[in-house]
Structures are given as C-alpha cells and as structure tokens.
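Run DUF3750 domain-containing protein through structure prediction, thanks.
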Amino acid sequence: MKFLRRLLLAFLFLYLLPALASAGWWYVKERPGSWREADWSSANILPKPGDDKAAAIYVFSATTGGMKGAVASHSWIVTKGEGDTTYNRYDKVGWGSPIRRNGYAADAKWYSNRPHLVVSVKGEEATRLIPNIEKAIQSYPYSKPGAYRIWPGPNSNTFVAHVLRCVPQLGAVLPPDPVGRDYLPEGKLFAIDADGLDMHATLYGLLGISAGIRSGLEVHVMGLVAGLDIMRPAVKIPALGRFGV
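Sure, done. The structure for DUF3750 domain-containing protein is below.
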C-alpha cells in the first residue's frame, strides 16, 4: 500500500498538476474559437526558398487548437533540395489524404500559434538525408484515409516521431508535448532507433519509457511525458515543455 501511495503521489506531482496548471492558463488565454477563426499564415521564420540555395530540413512543433492546446502540440517536417525554389511540407492530419503535402505554408502558424523549430539541418548533410526522410515518409504504415486517431495515436506526432527514429542522423526527438509521439507504429511494444542509440518501450502509447543519447530518460503516462535530457541538460515537464539548454 505504501508503494501504491507513493506511486499515486508521483503521478499527481509529475503529471497531473502540470497538466491542470496548463489547462487553467489555457482556459483563460485569448485564443481562436474555431479553426475558421484561426490564423494559418506564415510566421516568417524561414527564409524565402529562392533566397537560400542550400538544401535544408526543418522539423516544427506548434501548440494545437481547442482545449487540446493545454497539453498537446502538432508537429511537421519541411524539406528543400539544393537550388529548389519551393519548400515541401509534410503533415499527418485527420481528414482527407492523411499525409498532407504542402497543405500550409512551410512555417505557418498552427491555430494561430507560432511554431517552434525543433531541429534544422542544412547544406550537404541535408542533401544526404532528404532521400532517407522521403523513404521514411513512404514507409509510414498509417498513410491511408481513416488511419488517424487523435489519442493515444497514431496521429500527426506519431508520424513525425517515426521519421525521426528512422533518420536518427537528424539528432532530434520531439519535445514533451506532442501527444502521440510515443505510440509505436503497427502496435509494436518495443523499438530501437536505426542507429541503436535510443530505445523505446510502450504499451500502445499509454504507458512506457524511452532512453538513450537523444531521448535522455523519459517516462510517458497517458501521452504525457516527463524526463531528463542528459546530453543537453534539461527537464521535460508534461504539458509545459522542455526547460534547459
């Protein structure tokens, strides 16, 4: 009983209280009432593609809309080949064609929320990795209509996390708040990144752990992630994000 009590207290302080605090702040914050009222225009983060000849890869994350925004964000991938005059943006969405290409501006706001740049790679390294990213996108098993579930996954963040695991040379993991990032495709309970430096164990995205060079140590409960980043010292707090270097 003492162990269960401590476990309950740990859940309360590590997961529930941050989520409730974020929900309270989100409730009183001014925000769009619906997707029709939201601003989906460019946040003007990226240079115009024709002004920068170098190949580039970007991964973005932005707080989502409705009350989901209290604890969750949406992520996507942007690529540009060397000399290209346009970006290619890839999102997984819950309507129409699930893997949406160029449905929005590459650095567009999401439900009026300014996106956060998770990682960027440019130049020769980007040229080398873009074919790997395209291959990972093609291999994503939930690419047909109807293959979307907002929680615990597979959703937009499941898609981006799949690509990051398949192309570990990008050197990135999604921040703590993209709910669905820990759902492993095809119902797998265990996975190791392509380079063997990160491992993931999960019970269908509901309860699990990630550990390794990029992930540090993470424990996810019901889609909420808490953890420590070792290589770039930081703490990961459910619903609130990553705080550190």
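The CA atoms of residues 228 and 235 lie 5 Å apart.
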